[in-house]
Amino acid sequence: MSRFSQFVAIDWSGQAVARPKGLAVARARDGAGPPELIRRDGGWSRGAILDWLVEIAEAGSDTLIGLDLSPAFPFADHGAFFPGWDASPADAKALWALVEELSAADPHLAATSFVAHPEARRHFRQRFDCGDLFPAGRGRFRVVEHGQEAMRLSPYSCFNLVGASQVGKSSLTGMRVFHRLAGRIPFWPFDPLPERGPVLVEIYTALPARLAGMRKGISKIRDAATLDAMLGAFGSAPHAPLARYDDHATDAILSAAWLRAAAESPMLWAPSGLTPDIARTEGWTFGVV
Questions:
Q1: The whole model's pTM is what?
Q2: 3-class secondary-structure state, position 25
Q3: Which among 16, 29, 58, 202 could bridge 110 via Cys, Cβ 3.0 to 4.6 Å?
């Protein structure tokens, strides 16, 4: 039996606007009931999600919170996040602090100023601007992202900021949120798994879909029947009908149901490739073994 009483999945967005359309939040309670979307009038903002996470921290509720983003950049491949930059942080929490420092003036918890920094930009592929230290091909990957590939998923380098499937902008904006949380909620595996209270984890929403039976090449759920079939794979009751079936809502709903089922697996909390150094620097995607 899981020690958590509720399971939250957040589909994140790096869009540099007040209320990104890609933000979606879903919650599943302990048991087999259907996950539900948690809505905010006018839509969620990153700041509103930060405030809501602080409320969860203050309440001390046993909540497992999964965020669909990468909380750190590759480190293990070169022994640094940004090789050749003397300000390159030594671990993930120092990285979050640096992103916040250089992006502090950016509205909506965006990170435009960070990727425009003359040293940082050398490592990123941006629209019409590929940094001289962005390697040929698809870019650098974290150790866990190689694990994602082994599970037949299709990760993108966090240093790639181009294209609809890029995750770099989401990751950078998430880092500002994590820094501002100031350790109020432990983030596994950067922090040890506590016996009680809320916990943050990184998730990859394509993983629950694949585990529920969605075949490779099809990654999004856009209708009620498919969503209910996928929820059933995780022992969840059918969902309450949605006014609109978009990728973000269905990703969050399915991921919340998966988190509820997956949290009970000791193996997922002790993946074979997770070393103390990786836990301190790159982190890990919950569910990758």
A1: 0.96
A2: strand
A3: 16
